[in-house]
Amino acid sequence: MKRSLFLFPILSWLLVSCGERQFTKGEYDDMSEERHLDDKFNETDMRNIADTMVASLAGSWVVKDAKKPPVVLITLVKNRSEEHIDMKSMTDKLRVSLVKSGKFRFTEKEVRQELQEELAYQGESGYVDPESARKKGKQIGANYFLTGEITSRVQEVGSKKYVYYKCTFNLVNIDTGILDWTDEKELRKYYQKRSVGF
Length: 198
Hints:
alpha/beta
């Protein structure tokens, strides 16, 4: 009995110490530093892709020959890779970078229903002063569709692993259906498996 009472605290300590560790202290990290904590697509990959595409599109003839910034409708980037990637964040990152460049304007498909409801309220409800009410028929149509997709391929040999990503974007002229610009960004990352215990 005494031996069981002696062993109980030791076994309890072993169970607690072998359990899942908790992260208790945190601090802000430098976003400009590359972090590869695992073999998944990360924010550095997203930033590299967005920066490359923005520089390429901003330097294209589509922008250089335009008298005013083209109006673009961006669709959700498609994920054709073998892993889960937050494509909403990827699409938003690209749109924000393009808007910040000052060379593009964007129309937003996701708010069309809300815009329609607000225009109806302002114009038809009788609650809004007709002088300040927004009028139908004044929205600016998009000149281009911007579409994109990301694919991946994984190669593993022994303890080595290569993950390859290719992200392709296309700018389609809505008037003509012609592909006026396209570009791609390739990323390849290398990982080495560690032996257990090291």
